[in-house]
Specification:
The protein is α+β, with helices and mostly antiparallel strands. A hairpin with a 5-residue loop joins β7 and β8. The N and C termini lie far apart (54 Å).
Length: 265
């Protein structure tokens, strides 16, 4: 039954785009629902006018969906389908305006299915779409390397943020979480376990360029001896954006130690 409901939702969303029906379009998504395409990611409820982005306003638009695949796991699901959008201008022949694939992550809200994150794979967009399918991978391992002026490497990674109740909440606390990790909040987030855990996406530099330094102990799990520390601590400090300073301390024998890390800001 859920697969049928989700399939009907996908067709209803396609019809909303064809008709530029914003009310129905918003009803297709969760409160914090997002769409990602070749131009970037946006929150549907913050940018409702982006319905039908890039399609001609005049004339008739018709969606054709095919190859719908739905996988349901309790109150969560993923789906994918091919699409073709045909546009008929007021005075001219019909033309195929866009061909591609919708990849959706869905969640059941009360009794209804809603799209939590949609990725639009436009076959004509080419390399600009690199990485658009990462929503299906673990949020905690998603990285997108980039290079900024001067050759400094940057990457995007998602980190735990506790429960985030809606997009307004995420936009409020996201910058604070990013700052704690010496990064910049990208505005993107998603719920991993409803009511319990969400993650936010931050962008950080691979090599800090600041001139001020400070040291701080960070959780490191159990460390058994100094040789064990030399194996574990460099990677542990790097996970916090710092470098190991050679020091470590056991707080709870056999269970919990901390690593001394140096940070540059």
């Amino acid at each position: 039954m859920s697969r049928q409901e989700i399939t009907e939702l996908l067709y209803g969303c396609a019809g909303a785009v064809d008709a530029l029906d914003v009310e129905v379009w918003l009803g297709c998504f969760t409160e914090g629902g997002t769409v990602r395409d070749a131009s970037g990611t946006y929150a549907v409820r913050r940018d409702p006018e982006r319905i039908g982005d890039g399609l001609p306003v005049d004339g008739v638009r018709r969606h054709f969906l095919s190859g719908v695949i739905v996988e349901v796991d309790g109150d969560a699901a993923v789906s994918r389908c091919s699409f073709q959008i045909v546009v008929t201008p007021p005075n001219g022949p019909s033309v195929i305006a866009r061909v591609g694939e919708y990849r959706d992550r869905l969640r059941r809200v009360d009794r209804d299915w809603r799209i939590e994150a949609r990725v639009v794979v436009d076959d004509s967009a080419g390399p600009a779409q690199t990485g658009v399918g990462d929503f299906a991978e673990s949020a905690l391992t998603s990285m997108e390397p980039t290079v900024v002026k001067g050759g400094t490497g940057t990457f995007k990674v998602t980190v735990p943020a506790g429960p985030l109740w809606n997009d307004s909440h995420a936009q409020e606390v996201g910058p604070m979480i990013a700052a704690a990790h010496f990064g910049r909040f990208t505005g993107q987030w998603r719920t991993m376990v409803p009511g319990l855990m969400s993650v936010v996406e931050i962008e950080v530099t691979a090599e800090p360029t600041g001139t001020s330094e400070f040291t701080m102990d960070v959780p490191a799990g159990p460390i058994w001896n100094h040789d064990d520390a030399k194996q574990k601590c460099p990677a542990i400090c790097a996970s916090y954006g710092g470098t190991w300073n050679g020091h470590w301390t056991t707080v709870v024998p056999g269970r919990f130690s901390v690593a001394g890390c140096t940070f540059r800001i």
